[in-house]
What does this fold into?
Amino acid sequence: MAPSRARRPRRYLTCEPRHFDVLYAINPWMREGTPVDTERALTQWRTLVAAYRDHGHTVETVEPTPGLPDMVFAANAALVLGGRVLGSRFHAPRRQPESAAYEIWFKAAGFDVHEPQAVCEGEGDLVPVGPYVLAGTGFRTAPAAHQEVQEFFGVPTIGLRLTDPRFYHLDTALFSLEDGERGGGNVAYYPGAFSPGSRAVLERLFPDAVIATEDDALAFGLNAVCDGRHVFIDPGARSLIGRLAHRGYVPVPVDLSEFRKAGGGIKCCTQEIRP
It folds into this structure.
């Protein structure tokens, strides 16, 4: 019998996709000039926000900036842990102005923002799980940023190397299932996205992890958000949805397929503000 899972109310920061477009290519999912259905994207984003609120979570929004089509991907802007904010330093020049736009929001909300020295793309590559921060590298966030994360938050930070360019951020290949308040935390992930050594680390840290298939990962099923009970997940990740339900989680399918044109999904659009 699957264990009973408990939801914990969360606070999420999002950005309306008012200016969302594919104007350049910085990952294998993007094709410059790909037509974007702006109205469909807006409808899908509103559905995600409504799903969060319907499940008892607080959702706040940052004002989108013209000329920053990827600003909708709020997760990349920072890591917020224990009420402290580590900002971002983007690898791609076209995205670098997003850092300042989000910093304005955080400061207005009463947070101090620490600016990283190395390339660091926020929750795109930084995933708090239990007593750790899992930190991706290989395509975007630099290993030096992992050291900054550990020094700033005082939390053990574990580097994981991504080797498949389709999974260019850690949040496309892994997500946290439990925050560890009642234990060590757990994850779901796709092993094929990682180097052999990183797979071995994940196997050792999370022997009870939910393992996703390649099809699940390509459907952006691992770009998901879990509140401890509900998993907001792409409906295309059918095998992963079944495995999560078998473990006692409640999948909440939300279609963000329009954002996949830019290599994004549910988690990419969601920044968690952890008190």
Remarks:
- The two ends are 33 Å apart (CA to CA).
- The mean pLDDT is 96.
